């Protein structure tokens, strides 16, 4: 598979995935095209050796399974998350000011706010409807044209703005939506957009989960196309790479991709990494194909390995002092092993050694990130999944700039590098 074709698929995936629900829908579409069978958590499962299947929860988290052709003795697990920081609509979003209908927003996760100003914003998410016959149904909505903007205040009215000032999310981040509008106009427009996108008529909106998104499409940038610029690279880039590796693996070994929602807000939900989703799936799989009982399940988990994939902070040419001098990962320098002595990352020397061996097999360069000792460290689903399941885990990722901005940047070469390393992982017979 050519590197250029992979990058084109990445750009298409990013464009189609303005929300976690859209990302999971796009991933499910690719899985089904590759022969994966959809499982329903509320129904009995009948699994067979060598089968490929997937299951979703809340339509925003997904587990894809490649079951081994022989006995289920170990799983090669790849983890990522589907959510990204941003602006979510409040339930009663409409607010009128100076003759404009604005939409009140709630911050989702640790969004970098200043880049949201003066961007052309679309609207996307999940809407639940009651049809005329009483049926309640959920639909995805994606408005791709610019319907809102958060205008900056002119520098003439705020001369000290470039000296830095706090941004008040309650009073200064409400996007401008419609001149002369009122609350009812939002409901009317949502119904119009649902009719245009899905042909839905004669329905009542009961509730929604909607978010603003930047409509500028993802792009290759740089004189030689060295970089990828897009919204939501953290962490849809890892979702895409994990999916590519699973789909292109040889299918001989037991392998799994889990992409959880709600990482950016702590992972404590029914479909988050701190919730029971992955454990529920693994117990059902083990009950049918593995050694039954608690002992069999524990043996499976301890023989398995998890690679948690979440982007890393790349060395910024304008802010070199923000990195430890010996641990500044370069964009296009290969996957980054993320290490933290206080367990903010799950990497240890044994799991790191496994990944370094995989990179050597795949002919891929590898880097290491450790945060400065005088700075705080973020975290991932890695330590949470390791805590919940007990599976030996490490944290890796692609280096990027502008994490949690409305538009982030990563290296084009790193997409291929990490995909090849994860393919080697999925194909590896021995994990010890």
UniProtKB/TrEMBL annotation:
Enzyme class, spelled out: hydrolase
GO term, biological process aspect, one: proteolysis
Gene Ontology CC terms: cytoplasm
Record key words, sorted: Aminopeptidase, Hydrolase, Metal-binding, Metalloprotease, Protease, Zinc
Cofactor: Zn(2+)
Presence of the UniProt keyword Coiled coil in the record: no
GO terms assigned for molecular function: aminopeptidase activity; metallopeptidase activity; zinc ion binding
EC number per UniProt: 3.4.11.-
Domain of life (superkingdom): Bacteria
Family the UniProt entry places it in: Belongs to the peptidase M18 family.
Protein known as: M18 family aminopeptidase
Protein species of origin: Billgrantia endophytica
